[in-house]
Structure formats: C-alpha cells, structure tokens
C-alpha cells in the first residue's frame, strides 16, 4: 500500500490513526447534521485539528461574480467576521485564487516569499499568516471553492501528508455542498410547483365567487334604480353567500398558514355541535338536508380549543353538505367518550364517498375533487387543527354509503 501511496511512508502510525478517526467522525456527522453551515464548520474543525493548523477556512465560489468569498473561517486569533464581510478574491488572485483557477493544490512554506500571497486578508483579519495550504474543491468538474489550512502549529511547514489529508476533508466538504445545493434545487422546484397548483386552484375558486358577487351587485343596483323589491330580495341572499365564501376562504388560509398552539379550555360538546349546526343552518335549509346530532354519550365538558374545534367541524359539515344529493341529503354527527377520556367525533353522510385513490391525498392542502368549486383547504385545515390537539382524523366509508370522517382527541375528557 505504501508503494501505491508514497506519502504514507512519512506519516507516523499514531498520526494516521488520528486522521482516520477524524474522517470517520466526519462521515458520521454527515449522516446526522442537516444544517449545512454547522456541518461545514465541523468538517473544518476536524481538518484543522488533523493538519495541526492554527486556522482553517473554506471559501466558496460565486459563479455569477467569478469570485471566492469566505464562508467558514476558524482560528484562535483574527477577525473572522471581517474576512467574511470584506474579502473576495478573483480567480488567479491570491494563493486561493490560483488554486481555484488551476484546480491544483498549493503548499506554501513561507508566504512572505511568495508573490501570489494576498496580504489584504491578513490586514483585514489582523491575522499573521506564515505557511499556507490551499486545496481546490471540485465536484463533477464544477468549481465549488477552496479550503485553506493556515500556519502549522509549532512553526514547521505543512507536509505532503497534511496536503493529502486536507484534500480528503475538502472532498467531504465539496460533496456536502454539492448535495445540499442539489436538494435545494429540488425543493425549490417542488415549492414552485406547489405554489403554482395552489394559485391555480385559488384563482379558479375566487374567480367564480367574484363573478357571482359582481353579477349580484349589478342586479341590486338595477333593482334600486327601478325600485324592484322582488329583485332585491331575490339577489341579496346570493350576494351574502358569496361574501361568506370569501370570508371562509380567508379564514382557512390564515388557519392553515399560521403555526398555532391550541388554547385549551373546558367546553360542552353538545353546545359546540349545536352552535356549528346553527351556523350551518342556511346551507341545510337551501339544499333541504337532514342533520342528525347525537352527543348523548359525550362528557358534558371536554378540554379542547373551542374555536379550533368549531372551525374543524364546520369545514367537515360544509364538505358533507356539498357531497350529499339535494332534497335527499342526510348528515349524521355523533360524539362519544372512549375509556372515559378520549373524545371521538364522527361526521357521516350519504354522498358519493371518497374514492379509494383519493383517500391518501384527501387532507393534502389544495387537493380538491370539486374542480373550480373548491379550494382544497377545508380538510387540510381540519387535519391541522386535529393534529395540533395531538389527535387524529381519518376517512372511511359510512353506513349511509358516503364518507365518514372520524376525529379522535386523546384525553380530551381530562379537564385540567
């Protein structure tokens, strides 16, 4: 092995063991540290320790500006923040710039005798550089940056073994950066696709509602001009429903987008369900839907976020009302306690149900089977509220043939 790798002959066994241990630790860090900056700092710390350098830095390459800039700068002395803030090197500028341009490692025993040395970095950081190792970082022919080890502890020059060891640590840093950038690009593409889908769904829905509001406003204006009360009475409820739809959309967007801690307090399940039904009454009457509520087996008071639970149930009832057939629609809401403390609420209907292929995505934001008539936020909001309570919501086939949404809130019956 030593014949294949000549520089290994100059490495004492204890030094090699220490280097291998450091590389092993770094590989372990890559698996557990998800923050790229923290990972790179730890890699540079291990590299500094193995090379026995006073300082170690990582410069990244800005492809648009064609410059190197300090991303990680570790040292016992010197103003590292000033380096990051003020120093940028062009390719072929300074020893790091030459290493980046030629993509070859450079070992300088005394920088004072090297005309390539960039003195402004020391002047900015108040650091005294004597010896320097510069290793270019390249991933699949793409320049990532340069890693530097500065000043061998004890005043000696960096050895060939030090250079090769720093190349190993630089390779790990380059791989970590390249992988992080690739993941970031994938996530950015996924985010843009999700935003596009969301905007498309919301725009279709709001366009329909606004069209209805505009038409209603025109008819109301016409009714006022000709003093036609019959037209006003007929049109006003349509405008009211459109206004409530917009209001509901805004509330759903706020509920889904904001992180929220439930505000727990005692609330009566029966009264909560009655209030939801009262709010829901207009839609029930318009479609002639039969609503059955049974909270007899629920504890009088449970411990929950009343407003959040109200919003969740209102969304489920609205969803059910839109799914059941007019004039023959039936919705059943039941609430019961299990094992004395877990609250289970079920909302069942006799609609078409949820197709098997949609069950896995039914709670995804902006997923809707209603086309331009839905936003895909209602069920996502309901799932979020239940999850914030530490509970679970599922959907199955109801005995009536439609959908059955089951909410389980653990220990809701244990009043604090």
Describe the structure.
The protein is built from 10 helices and 13 strands. The chain is elongated and about 95 Å long. A hairpin with a 4-residue loop joins strand 1 and strand 2. The chain is an alpha+beta fold and 416 residues long. The model has no long low-confidence stretch (mean pLDDT 79). It has 3 domains: 181 residues, GAF domain (Beta-Lactamase, 2-Layer Sandwich), CATH 3.30.450; 60 residues; 145 residues, 2-Layer Sandwich (Heat Shock Protein 90), CATH 3.30.565.
Quick summary:
The chain is α+β, with helices and mostly antiparallel strands and 416 residues long. It has 10 helices and 13 strands.
Please state how the strands of the largest beta sheet are arranged side by side. 3-2-1-6-5-4
Secondary-structure element string: HHEEHEHEHEEHHEHEEHEEHEE
Number of domains: 3
Structural class: alpha+beta
**Which of globular, elongated, flat, extended, rod-shaped describes the shape?**
elongated
The CATH architecture of the largest domain is 2-Layer Sandwich
Helical content, roughly?
Answer: 40-55%
Rg over CA atoms, rounded to whole Å, is: 33 Å
Mean pLDDT: 79
* CATH hierarchy, class of the largest domain: Alpha Beta
CATH topology of the largest domain: Beta-Lactamase
Could you give the distance between the termini? 69 Å
Number of helices: 10
Estimated share of beta-strand residues? 15-25%
Largest sheet: 6 strands, antiparallel
Low-confidence segments, given as residue ranges, are none
The total strand number stands at 13
